Amino acid sequence: MKICENACFPCTSIANSCAGPQRLVTRYIYGSIFLLTTVLAWMVRDYTHTLLSKLDSLKGCEGGHDCLGSEGVLRLSLGCFVSFSMIQGWWPIKSLMWIALMVVPFFVPSAFIRLYGEVARFGAGIFLTIQLLSVIHFTYWWNEDWLSEKKARHCRIPMVVVTASSFSAALSGIVLMYIWFSPKVSCGLNIFFITLTLVMIQIMTSISLHSKVNAGLMTSGLLALYIVFLCWSAIMSEPLSAKCNTRPRQTGKGDWVTITSFILAILAIVFATMSTGTDSDCFSFKDKRKVKTDEDVPYGYGFFHFVFAMGSMYFAMLFVGWNLHQTMHKWSIDVGWASVWVKVASEWISAGVYIWTMIAPFIFKNRDFS
Q1: Angle at 266 between CA 261 and CA 267, to 5 degrees
Q2: Mean pLDDT over residues 235-251, rounded?
Q3: 55 contact partners, CB below 8 Å, separation of at least 6
Q4: Average pLDDT value over all residues in the chain
Q5: pTM (two decimals)
Q6: How far, CA to CA in Å, does 181 sit from each of 9, 176, 188?
Q7: Which DSSP category does 327 fall into?
Q8: Which of 120, 187, 204, 339 is exposed most, by the fewest CB atoms within 10 A?
Q9: Which residues of 204-220 are buried (b: 16+ CB within 10 A; e: fewer)?
């Protein structure tokens, strides 16, 4: 146990896996099902237009041929949402139910699917909110873990390295975005996005260094890197008609850049859903002083199911670019102006929530924020 107590890396996942793999098997089964459903959604969107056009339930598809792929994605998303909303256990029955739920939604009227699409936007927004809160919680946990009495002595140098690397990477990203995404003065929107990101990093860092806050540079460095990533991702989601982006982007053709970006995006969706679904501690109202035993499951079943259900709506929005009437290119994911503004909003909210966690204890002095 002393190795884990003194080592400067998270041992929780390793310990949980070694202690009882049976408690984690459900997590990986769900992840595999989610990955399979996501791949099916891509195949339906890009390669089944002819087949979908023969279904009576899709005759009322607004936009004709262009909306068939989007509706196909939403129908699989609906089936996935219902599947993940079901209770834990009974895997033989749930497996059959999942297969049925991949088929039944294709016979649901288009009007209901369009209504589900509107609801899915809201559900995907909830997923993004949970994700960004989970990221902020993780940065705080990491910082506090390395500053604990057991690890502070051994983790000083690693903490300096992580902090310096985070800020260096974030500032390098800012410089590269100015070079690649705003080559002309007329690229005002991109310049605004990048400059505001830089300003938010300065504000976050300044507040965290205040003597009364003392949040630590490592936390601010990690959050700086995260919001730079969101800004970068937002600009990369701009449609091909936006001429300010000089980097290779998803073109709808089978080139290596498009295919690689697509595969990485799919894996990122699954990883984000699994990692967020197991981070129930930061959303728990239970007594955190309670000591966990070896028999405790390392995540909350209810929260895990909820995150995967919201993740089902999230992957649908990525495949349709958050626009129910948008035509997406083959091999493309999360592209379009709607996607850009969703990511930019996520970046601003992330920075705002992080700043709020630092200043809230001084505004509401009578409340316990521990």
Answers
A1: 100
A2: 76
A3: 106, 107
A4: 80
A5: 0.82
A6: 36, 8, 10
A7: P
A8: 187
A9: bbebbeeeeeebbbbbb
Q: Within a 10 A sphere around the Cβ of 188, how many other Cβ atoms?
A: 11
46, 320 in Cβ contact below 8 A?
no
Half-sphere CA count of 201, side-chain side, radius 13 A: 27
Contact between 343 and 265 (Cβ < 8 Å): no
- Taken in order 78, 80, 86, 92, the sign of the CA dihedral is positive
Question: What are the DSSP calls for 95-163, one per residue?
Answer: HHHHHHHTTGGGGS-HHHHHHHHHHHHHHHHHHHHHHHHHHHHHHHHHHHHHHSTTTTTTSHHHHHHHH
Average pLDDT over residues 191-213: 92
Kindly state the percentage of the chain with pLDDT values over 90. Answer: 31
CA distance 370 to 368: 6
pLDDT value of position 334: 83
**Rounded Cα gap, residues 230 and 228, in angstroms:** 5
Residue of 22 and 195 predicted with greater confidence: 195
Using the predicted structure, report yes or no on whether residue 224 has a pLDDT greater than 90: yes
Distance CA 122, CA 144 (A): 33
Per-residue pLDDT tens over the stretch 254-306: 556 667 767 777 787 787 777 766 655 555 545 545 554 444 544 567 788 88
- Total count of residues recorded for the chain: 370
Q: Measuring CA to CA, which residue among 333, 353, 362 is closest to residue 133? A: 353
Sign of CA dihedral 339, 343, 344, 346: positive
Closest CA to 293 of 10, 20, 4: 20
Q: Tell me: the pLDDT tens digits for 295-318?
A: 454 456 778 888 889 999 999 998
Per DSSP, the chain holds a count of helices (H) and strands (E) of: 13, 0
Burial of 104 (0-12, 13-18, 19+ CB in 10 A): middle
Structure tokens at 107: 């016979």
For residue 203, give both structure tokens: 């504000």
